[in-house]
Design brief:
The complex is a heterodimer of chains A (about 375) and B (about 375). Chain A has a domain of about 210 residues. Helices cover about 60% and strands about 0% of the residues of chain A. The chains are: A mainly alpha (about 375), B alpha/beta (about 375).
Chain lengths: ~375, ~375
């Protein structure tokens, strides 16, 4: 294997055993405190969502046209902005720290019938069963294997020299901005593998049932955010609609930023299908470490990034409750140092900067990958 | 009694169908839960209103069930969810309060079993103000409606609870029939509801209570103090002419059942039985038979091959993804028996537990919901 590290088979096996030991220790210690964490988080998120929508509606009372003491743009704008921010944050929490992690079966061990990976549906236009396939099965099994992991560039972008250049990629500095703004829609269509349909490798008949489910999900999501809640505002329909749209965009851009920092920053490694042939669990661990990147930050930052700022820990232990990643991160990092494995962690600015620069740089044809 | 609530609910349910669209992908009920967990309709919970120690090891919990609760009949039981160590456990308890109770609360009485994590948690740790998931009343261990009868109750330990509901119901209606009650407890101070039962016996000559203390004279004599035919004849000579209701530990129920069967009176005996449904944990790797409940297939296994392969070799094609325990696409419900995690060696034997079949093997006989 042409892995960028010199580890013999025995060392790889030993590395795997040590990670297994960390995993067993943490999984055995799951208990009441973890349950309290997720229940409190869910309560907070739902309160924020409802509260945000109420503040948005309440902001209409401050419109200049009412002519009372507190009416005027100077009152209205901050209040509606606050409501929008609350709703946006609620959507961020729901999608990332709650939805993503619940659907990874991180909380199935509680056997709480309300918090099960099999039945959880999230606040996104992407139906959760399709996301679980494209994410849990394809991405987490084939992480960063070019041609196998469809999250490498999402079928839209060239993020490694190992992807062959195509004139289509010239557009990627612009298309990536669209992806940021409408990220949930790209995720919703992701599992359809539209490029394979266009290439004739997948038929329309195959994707029709999936399209039906996406359609229904889009309808209920759209009805809620763009019809029903705005209708409560009567003649001020458009204000509420705009606020909801902005909240959705806040969620889209934030999840785009965090998720793109997971596998695309400078230093993330990519693999070919041949390299991972016959790979056992220990080597899969090594690939997860090499292919994932962390973001440094404080406790609140980790929560609102769904702990995907601990992307390395998430990828080696995808079904470990996310509130435990901060405590295992130093141990995983020390382990990597001991085995001479790179552990890619930098500030949000550095990771997102290098990701963006790479997307711009790789839009142009480049030579074959430089020797590592 | 359910007709009225059904009629009253329909305009409300039309309204919730509309508000649910505002709450999608959740439901209105999820937001009502933020205000009061008893208002939910997507699940039923009960608030622990108060706790009361009946004996040193038994505690009565007064529960206020949420909306959608329906009244029970005396003798019925409920399933109660109990989070212990962050994990939900479901246990079944008889309701010990009578349906006539008018404060919309019910009581269950739990005895802490040695080594029983759930019962000990309920008896020692559950505090008033906490919420527990609750099922609806179930079971046909109850007295027939409006049929005059002369019951014989045979109970032991916490097996008193469904009978307590029946007795309290009779007392509340002021219609206590001719009852004989044979109850076993280790010592006088272990009798759950002891004072109340004695008071009932004093006030109502038609209620004849016979208390047998199985450990009072020391361990050695206790065996003779358990259920025997002679004892029954002494306490209740006319037992053949009565409808018998029995609830208690496995040993008592087995003895009672045999006795009634031998007398050819099995149809007059009604039994409420609670037993632990989980399998023994095997000490080492053991093969067994794997049953796929939904498809009705059964196949032997060596206890080393993962259950996904076992299912595929049996001709099934269960949903799966990574085959290495990452993606949870193959998660299946354990119906009965025991499975072993091939990565960690951890063994699971609680029915209803989720099993990743790609990294679990059978540990003895096992049934999966496949």
């Amino acid at each position: 294997m042409s892995f960028p590290v010199r580890l013999n088979e025995a060392a790889v096996e030993e590395f795997g055993r040590e990670l297994d030991a960390i995993r067993d220790e943490v999984m055995d210690s799951r208990g009441d405190a973890d349950r309290r964490y997720i229940l409190r988080l869910i309560r907070t998120q739902r309160s924020l969502a409802l509260g945000g929508r109420i503040v948005i509606l309440a902001s209409l009372a401050f419109l200049p046209r009412w002519g009372h003491v507190l009416s005027g743009w100077a009152w209205f704008v901050p209040v509606i902005a606050l409501g929008t921010l609350m709703l946006g944050l609620a959507k961020v929490l729901e999608n990332m720290e709650i939805g993503h992690n619940v659907m990874h079966a991180q909380w199935d061990w509680m056997r709480d019938p309300d918090i099960q990976s099999g039945t959880w549906e999230w606040d996104s236009v992407c139906p959760s069963d399709q996301w679980k396939h494209s994410h849990n099965v394809v991405h987490h099994t084939w992480t960063n294997v070019v041609g196998k992991d469809r999250d490498v560039g999402y079928g839209m972008l060239r993020v490694t020299e190992q992807q062959r250049w195509h004139p289509f990629y010239l557009l990627q500095p612009i298309s990536t901005v669209f992806m940021a703004l409408f990220f949930e829609w790209f995720i919703a269509l992701h599992d359809l593998e539209i490029n394979r349909v266009l290439a004739g490798k997948r038929t329309l008949a195959q994707i029709r049932p999936m399209l039906g489910r996406i359609g229904r999900k889009v309808a209920t999501q759209g009805l809620k955010d763009y019809v029903l809640w705005p209708l409560l505002a009567g003649p001020f329909f458009l204000y509420v609609l705009a606020a909801n749209a902005v909240a959705n965009v806040i969620r889209n851009v934030w999840s785009y930023v965090i998720i793109f920092c997971g596998h695309f920053p400078e230093g993330a490694h990519y693999f070919s299908a041949e390299e991972v042939e016959g790979e056992a669990r220990a080597r899969w661990y090594v690939r997860q470490v090499l292919g994932s990147c962390n973001i440094d930050g404080g406790r609140l930052f980790h929560v609102i990034s769904g702990n995907l700022s601990h992307q390395i820990e998430h990828h080696v232990f995808p079904d470990m409750p996310s509130n435990r990643y901060p405590e295992v991160a130093p141990r995983v990092r020390a382990l990597c140092a001991r085995y001479g494995l790179p552990y890619n962690t930098r500030s949000l600015g550095r990771q997102f900067g290098s990701t963006t620069w790479k997307i711009v740089r790789l839009s142009l044809p480049t030579a074959a990958p430089a020797a590592a | 009694m359910e007709r009225t609530s059904g009629a009253a609910r329909s305009p409300l349910s039309g309204l919730t169908a509309l508000t649910d669209l505002f709450a999608s992908p959740l439901r209105t009920s999820h937001y009502l839960e933020l205000v009061n967990p008893l208002w939910t309709t997507h699940k039923l919970q009960a608030r622990v209103v108060s706790v009361w120690d009946e004996t040193a090891s038994a505690r009565t919990l007064t529960l206020r069930p949420g909306r959608n609760w329906r009244s029970h009949r005396a003798g019925q039981h409920v399933r109660l969810g109990v989070p212990v160590g962050g994990m939900h456990h479901t246990r079944t308890y008889s309701i010990s309060s009578p349906p006539e109770r008018d404060d919309e609360c019910i009581t269950i009485t739990v005895k802490a079993m040695p080594g029983g994590r759930v019962s000990q948690h309920l008896v020692r740790n559950v505090a008033p103000g906490s919420y527990l998931p609750l099922g609806l009343p179930q079971g046909d261990f109850m007295l027939p409606d409006a049929v005059p009868m002369r019951p014989l109750f045979v109970t032991a330990g916490s097996g008193i609870t469904p009978i307590a509901s029946m007795l309290r119901s009779y007392a509340a209606r002021g219609k206590l029939p001719d009852v004989v009650h044979l109850h076993y407890a280790p010592h006088p101070y272990d009798v759950i509801f002891g004072a109340e039962l004695n008071k009932l016996a004093e006030d109502h000559p038609r209620y004849r209570l016979a208390l047998v203390y199985t450990r009072e004279l020391g361990e050695a004599n206790s065996r003779q103090r358990h259920f025997t035919a002679r004892q029954l004849d002494d306490v209740c000579p006319d037992w053949r002419g009565r409808e018998a209701y029995a609830c208690g530990p496995q040993g008592l129920l087995a003895a009672v059942e045999t006795h009634w069967q031998q007398a050819g009176l099995a149809r007059r005996l009604h039994i409420e039985r609670f037993h632990a449904p989980w399998a023994e944990l095997p000490a080492e790797v053991a093969g067994g038979r794997v049953r796929f409940g939904r498809s009705g297939l059964e196949t032997p296994t060596d206890g080393r091959m993962n259950l996904l392969r076992v299912a595929e070799d049996a001709g099934l094609n269960p949903p799966h993804g990574c085959r290495m325990g990452i993606c949870h696409s193959c998660d299946t419900r354990l119906v009965s028996g025991c499975v072993r995690d091939l990565r960690t060696g951890a063994v699971v034997n609680e029915p209803g537990h989720t099993v990743q079949i790609c990294i679990n093997a059978a540990a003895g006989d096992v049934e999966l919901d496949l």
